[in-house]
Amino acid sequence: MERSRTRGNISTVNLLIGVIGSCEGEDGSELNRWLDLVKKWELRFTCYTYKCLLQAYLRLSDSNKAFGVYREIRTHGYKLDIFSYNKLIDALAKDEKVEQASTVFKDMQKRHCKPDVYTYTILIRMNGKNGKPNESLVLFQEMLSNGCSPNLIAYNTMIQSLSKSRMVEKTLFLFSKMIENNCRPNELTYSFILHVLAAEGQLHRLNEVVEVSKRFMNKSTYAYLVRTLNKLGHSSEAHRLFCSMWNFHDKGDRDAYLSMLESLCTSGKLIEAIDLLSKMHEKGIGTDTFMYNVIFSALGKLKQIPHIHDLYEKMKQSGVPPDLFTYNILISSFGRAGRVAEAVEIFEELESSNWKPDIVSYNSLINCLGKNGDVDEAHMRFIEMQEKGMNPDVVTYSTLIECFGKTEKVEMACQMFDAMLAEGCFPNIITYNILLDCLERCGRTVEAVDLFAKLKEQGLVPDSITYSILDRLRSGGKQTGRVRRQNPVTGWVVSPLR
């Protein structure tokens, strides 16, 4: 049309503007082109043209130009429909143009366009984000006065605004009104309430929330609350709520039970965790390998070997098969407690199972053997894993270097370090600290200084342990105390359970 120099009409322009912004990546250049045609053809904008232009700028996420078009619409005395008003207010609110959004809202009321629930929800959210909960409340009350029935989104938006400002009483009051008006809360509703109660130290009032909304409470809701409380670190409240769920629902929710199991293990309540595991079948939940592994891991960290034995037997009797992670946990747990024979027995059981030992399995066994005095056997297992095609990692080498160092086999420790480099396995600061400590204890000062230089060349950053060893080198004193920070739970250089 432009090439043929045929003069178009405003309807044509309206159609062209109407499709602007419907495709991703548009930058508005096409829109400018059509607007230039309007000037070139000396056309006059109609009310519909302005509406199309307003929507085009909104689709292009340009709230500034959209507001400019709105001002022209107002100047010409044209009216917008509720859909256009809401779209414009929403765009301005999202771009934090509070004053302009408020102006449009007042204008729509003056022009007898009645705001709906969506209009009020946008403005309530905007004020809530700007820390103005009282303004949000005024809007919410106005919405009710104008005969608008709040929906779930409106209630959640208002509750979020109140909870963000830690207004507990008003949050709970509005929640009760929500239930009174037969509006079912969802997980987001409970999330806002939980966070404000936790922030204000009033989680004991969760009972009020549950009681008020009990006709809407189901096992999924209980499960969500239990999981969320555990994630927030409130295990006691989670356990109390979990007990309510247990008493009032015949069928359990696996996620809630697993969350409670993990929480009990984390807080050291292992007897309760084992008891819960044994009772899950009463609520129609089958136990699985992962659940057992959660408890095995916690028992191992606390060296509760008798309980590990009992639970492992119960696991096998119930027909739940151990997986590779189960075996690795058991090997490391027995090793941590100095039960070498049992660790070896589990390793051999692993070898004869459908699973095969991985590098973590070997690292666990090597650490167990070496730390309990059987360095030669640990070295043999190291050779065995290489023969099976496994590449030892920094944990394997660091463990053996430490074991050789502690048994005065300094040459073997140095050879292991050299072999590590030759295999392309780069030592970390822990490895260097282990060997530096070994060399310093044996009085091999020159080699220790050379090793420190190599550490720097590799680009590693010395830590407090490194400097402690260097201080001993400078003073010439031989301390027999441990210089290496040891994990208070595992006692390992680097935990093999990764």
TrEMBL record:
Its family remark reads: Belongs to the PPR family. P subfamily.
Molecular function terms, GO-annotated: mRNA binding
The source organism is Cuscuta europaea
PPR repeat copies, ranges = 46-80, 81-115, 116-150, 151-185, 253-287, 288-322, 323-357, 358-392, 393-427, 428-462
Q: From which residue to which does any coiled coil extend?
A: none
InterPro entries, sorted: PPR_rpt, TPR-like_helical_dom_sf
**A Pfam family name for this chain?**
PPR
The record's annotation in NCBIfam families points to: PPR
Keywords from the UniProt entry: Repeat
Source domain of life is: Eukaryota
- Protein name as catalogued: Pentatricopeptide repeat-containing protein
- SUPFAM superfamilies reported for this sequence: HCP-like (SSF81901)
